[in-house]
Amino acid sequence: MRSEIAFSFLVAILFLVTACDRNRVYDEYKPVRGWHRDSTITFDLGELDSTRTYNLFLNIRNNNDYNYSNLFLITQIQFPQGKVISDTLEYEMTRPDGEWLGTGFGDVKENKLWYKENVKFDEPGNYKVNVKQAMRKNGEVQGIEELEGITHVGFRIENKE
């Protein structure tokens, strides 16, 4: 009897968690260990509904090994017919007093960062998103060769509603 109640409780919790996230269209994370300046993280989005409008997010998980208050990224959206849109983005990772932004307990914090809003994927075919880190120390031309402290990079698409 107890196991039936526990099972019913777990099913109810699972239903609530998934029901609260019905705007999610795509959500994937890639692990990172020492993010090299030439390393590109690619997300294959597949074919998306051309009649819908979406909001796009970059999700970054970092730990206390991340030594900076901000994060520079270079992103690209590759369209099925060959068009590419590139952006250089800067995100704040800490408050002015050095406290981490984001959510989470303990060492790891997660940041859901706005990338683009009201996006339509109107070309038929498969889309890709590429993400590279573009961090450099003040006064230096060369980027940071191995960026430590970023543990996962994620990409998320939500229905605009």
TrEMBL record:
Keywords: Lipoprotein. It comes from the Bacteria. It holds the Pfam family GldH_lipo. This is Gliding motility lipoprotein GldH. It comes from Christiangramia oceanisediminis.
